[in-house]
Amino acid sequence: MAEMPQLLKQRMEKQGYHFVGRHSAVKTCEYTAKGIRGETLCYKYSFYGIHSWQCIQATPAVGCDLACSFCWRLIPEEHGFKWNELNAVDKWDDPAQVVEGMINEQKRLVNGYKATAASDVGKKRAIEALSPRHVALSLTGEPLFYPKMSALLREFHKRGISTFLVHNGTLPEALEKLDTMPTQLYISLQAPDEETYIRVTRPKIPDAWQRFRKALKVLGGLKTRTVLRMTLVKNLNMLNPGGYAELIRLAKPNYVEVKGFSFVGGARDDARNLNFSSMPNHNEIKEFAKKLAELTEYLVTAEHAPSRVVLLSRDEESKNNRLIDFSRIGK
User: Fold this and answer.
1) Which pTM does this prediction carry?
2) Which of 106, 130, 240, 246 lies in disulfide reach of 192, CB 3.0 to 4.6 Å?
3) How far apart are CA 39 and CA 37, in angstroms?
4) Which residues form the domain of 135?
């Protein structure tokens, strides 16, 4: 077992990560705090009806097999830590314990926002925040490293909590083994071609691009709502819309989220060679999304300017049924 170095864990805790058990973590999203205060809500609210103030941002596995240059994550090697993330856990926590730990830690964290909820809306949401209705398994690392993902999803669903699972595309066999699907399943679409992919994701495994393309094919055959999530960085991967269109056609997702890079967290490290000018503005994102829509015949459906993100839908059915039906969670 190659446990996380204690100093690395401490640095992550300084960045707001709260560890649950041996290998899981939660972190309060800025839109959770804003939602409780009655301010701007997350794009997941306007796109899918997710209540930002009742959303847990979490991961059951902190390690990752990619080192994406645009990621907000602190990448160990860039800070002098020698940590084998690909084999970091010798015993995985029980799914029910992970879920209960995440929920309890989230309640503890959001309880501190009560004092900032001055309006009637805020006071109501501060109470509702203590009863999470959604979890985004996308915080950091690669969630599908956790080998008990299906059981984890079932534990959330039986509590009436919807699940968004974000996968980096390097574990197609883990996707194929899922016998319980998340409410919405994502794959991050980091690049339009192999050369750009290697430059952007800096993989720790030799066949990452081939595995990624296989994962996209697997995604196209799964019976759940599916999404490709793009993080576009100027002068890095915001290019070759035709290449992206080919990958979108391969995966056939219900939705494509075309989102602008944010210069935050680990992305600010000197090793990444990024800066504020790497961030596309919302108009540039809209133009790129429009090109993708033209190439794929997807429909421009919605946008969220504060997050610099545009939603594309595969067809009218996906467009008209994008709001999550919480009454069906766990059924």
Assistant:
1) 0.95
2) 240
3) 6
4) 6-322
